[in-house]
Amino acid sequence: MRRHRGLLIGAGGFASAWARRFLPAFSDRIAMVAIADIAPEALNASGEILDIPVNHRFESAEQMLNDVDADVCFMVIQPGARTELVRLAAQRGLAILCEKPIASSWEQSLEIANIAHESGIKLAVMQNYRESNRIRALKKVLQRPEIGMVNLVQCRMAVNYTIETAGGAFRHQFSDAFIYEGAEHHLDQVRNLLTADAEWVQGVQWNQPWSTFGNNPCLLLTIGMTTGAVVHYEMNHIDRGHQNGWHKEYYRIACEGGTVTLDANDVIRVTLHVSGEREEVEEILPDTDSRDGHFAQIGTFLDWLDGGPAPVTVPADNLRTMALIFAAVEATHTGQRVQVADYRIPAHLASREQQSLTAAASD
Fold this sequence. Notes:
Layout: E1 4-9, H1 15-22, E2 30-36, H2 40-49, E3 57-58, H3 61-67, E4 72-75, H4 83-91, E5 95-99, H5 106-119, E6 123-126, H6 133-142, E7 150-158, H7 177-194, E8 198-206, E9 218-225, E10 230-236, E11 250-255, E12 258-262, E13 268-275, E14 278-284, H8 293-305, H9 315-334, E15 338-339, H10 347-350, H11 352-361
Parallel strand pairs: 1-2, 1-4, 2-3, 4-5, 5-6, 7-10
Antiparallel strand pairs: 7-11, 8-9, 8-15, 9-10, 11-12, 12-13, 13-14
Helix pairs in contact: 1-2, 4-5, 5-9, 6-7, 7-9
């Protein structure tokens, strides 16, 4: 198995977690050879952690991409700054794994997907929630034959945050940040759990006088899925009651055969209808696999580079999540139900099989 030469774009904020935790776990498969960030202090801190020489720590990502020989690039920067860097990395033939969301607009999302398609590079988006232990276990339960079809999904994310404690303060000043940066995780999760896409979405977002945020920290969405299921989604960043924070979200999934719930204690509770008023209740604890989340998705991406199957989160799939995200933003702005298909994905970008074949042909 070859050892890949990796570049990291981003060093501060969440990129520092990539430098501290995620990338060192794959040191047998990746040699990190350069890093770029506009902030010198963060650049040098993460560069030291990754043992990258000073002359390979760049304040210009463009210069790094032009000057350093590598074969894979990890992008952990604000989504609005990615398009031209993806284009340059593609021109160099680099595979790319980027943090979610893929871009900050629908047009940029399509442009990045098209760059990957036309260049034939391998590109995937980090959707780490799909590989968390609790969600793996929940999805496995939903696939049991006795569970049957899903009718209704309730998903709740609720935390008591201020702008100082929420992390990444820049996110909490621009419009719709909580949809792009927070709900994106959960709306992708709904698609993952139901193995279905969204047909329509409607909703509202708002703020309250006691909030410290400069934008709307509260969101309610109703989503109709292609399977006929309906999703009720709640995100509340100023909740002062029962907490369902990151990786502790609440799910209640009402199905043909019973109901499945998952709360902050990570216990999956399955209540099956037997007959009449009789029920059977089972409680399940998820596995404790330390290689979940980011670790699992980075490993799958590297497997792809080494000849394995493409990850689920290639652009052909991720564009469907992004279509739902931008439709949700439109719905909360207009107060109208929005058809997700109005965000049209061109045929050449919609096929997972085609994207896998194009990337394989470039190897």
